[in-house]
Write a structure and sequence with these properties.
Layout: E1 2-5, H1 10-21, E2 27-30, H2 44-49, E3 57-60, E4 63-66, H3 68-78, H4 89-105, H5 107-111, H6 125-150, H7 162-176, H8 184-194, H9 197-213
């Protein structure tokens, strides 16, 4: 199995954690990335596999897949144990909605913080930070919503699932970009995620990648 991943790709890290949770051996290729140029030059295997030219791309035998959600669903069907989705159709649908919440609802305000990892542009900084303040406010609102969804559970779907992976990464990305840290029961859940070896390994790699690629975060 081959995975084309990015050193600072949120959606690649979702797939990496899922693969590790399932104990699947994978050969990982990290594509070229810099904060100034992004993912350029594009890796030819990624360009050939994905019309968007984006990672992650997974190759399993004769099958090539892109999009983190599609890849995680394939892994669950092809390698069902240990399960990363709930058992019943209703629970699985709820899990998918939570994953979508991470990928599509938390991501837009998160994007307003991403300039903080890039080389600073003094001419745009004030406007960027004004947008970031709005994004942080929205993220706090969404975190409060997630606290209600979590309630008294250890995990969002009763046990650890893809929903926890996706939501953790969105929360981590916000913290990584000097945004809000999860509070209350969400903060307890966040710490519980960090205690998982699969997540701790990915977080350590992300922090090391930031030291090399994102000096602006340490200025």
């Amino acid at each position: 199995m081959q995975l084309y991943s990015g050193p600072l790709s949120l959606f690649s890290k979702k797939v990496e954690i899922a693969l590790a949770e399932k104990g699947l051996a994978v050969q990982r290729t990290l594509v070229a990335f810099t904060q100034s140029e992004g993912y350029r030059p594009k890796h030819p295997a990624v360009l050939a596999a994905n019309p968007k030219g984006q990672v992650p791309v997974l190759v399993d035998g004769g099958l090539t897949l892109f999009d983190s959600t599609v890849i995680c669903e394939y892994l669950e069907e092809a390698y069902p144990l240990p399960a990363l989705y709930p058992a019943t159709p209703q629970e699985r649908a709820r899990c998918r909605l939570l994953e979508l919440f991470a990928d599509e609802i938390l991501l837009p305000p998160l994007r307003s913080l991403m300039h903080r990892s890039e080389p600073p542009d003094p001419a745009r900084r004030a406007a960027q930070e004004a947008e970031a303040a709005k994004g942080e406010s929205k993220l706090r609102e969404l975190h409060a919503d997630l606290q209600g969804k979590l309630g008294a559970q250890d995990w969002f779907c009763g046990r650890f699932t893809v929903a926890d992976i996706a939501l953790f990464l969105s929360c981590f990305w916000a913290e990584r970009l000097k945004g809000p840290h999860p509070q209350g029961v969400l903060g307890t859940w966040y710490a519980r995620c960090l205690d998982r070896p699969t997540i701790a390994k990915v977080v350590a790699e992300l922090r090391e990648a930031d030291r090399r690629l994102s000096p602006a975060l340490f200025a």
